[in-house]
């Protein structure tokens, strides 16, 4: 049991998309698929999407499910298909999903998409069905990133790398005004 979260040293991103390829490969998503679990948002500041701070140097932002502790997707699903697992990861009972798409509409981060293969909604689940299920403690995007900008681990363990970096460095979450309490953190 853990309480997994992720932190991003986001300014180190060189927009190489190695994370995207690794994620698709690890989680059985076609390499050419347009809808998938992770994406790099370019020129976030220029578009003024999330922040009001002066970050004129930002060009690339790593985006995926924010693992909300108060998740609008979970509340919106009329079938009770979405739940939080023993590791604090927002998951889906696939057999209960009828593609109502209420979760997709409710997510403030556009993190959910339709998995055309299985006819359910999908999103990042920290490689729970693949790497974590095999007993590994890293995610595919984290281990592959050449800039090593991702920290992944147990937020409840004060000795984990992510807990230490969050203690040492200032950070922020996306769209705090949505009240979702994300477990993804962006390091200043
Ligand atoms: Fe759900 Fe979206 Fe929050 Fe992820 S980011 S837990 S999909 S509301
Ligand atoms: Fe994809 Fe795993 Fe990274 Fe989530 S943690 S974006 S599932 S590689």
Question: Which short descriptors sum up this protein?
Answer:
188 residues, alpha+beta, Alpha-Beta Plaits, 4-stranded mixed β-sheet, 19% helix, 20% strand, binds iron/sulfur cluster, 4Fe4S_Fe-S-bd, iron-sulfur, ET_IronSulfur_Cluster-Binding, metal-binding, Thiosulfate reductase electron transport protein phsB
Please give the structural blueprint.
Elements: E1 4-8, H1 18-26, E2 38-42, H2 44-47, E3 60-64, H3 72-76, E4 82-84, E5 90-92, H4 102-106, E6 113-115, E7 120-122, H5 140-144, E8 150-154, H6 161-168, E9 171-172, E10 184-187
Parallel strand pairs: 1-10
Antiparallel strand pairs: 1-8, 2-3, 4-5, 6-7, 9-10
The chain binds iron/sulfur cluster (2 copies).
Summarize the structure.
The chain is an alpha+beta fold and 188 residues long. It contains 6 helices and 10 strands; from the N terminus they run E-H-E-H-E-H-E-E-H-E-E-H-E-H-E-E. The protein has one domain: Alpha-Beta Plaits (2-Layer Sandwich).
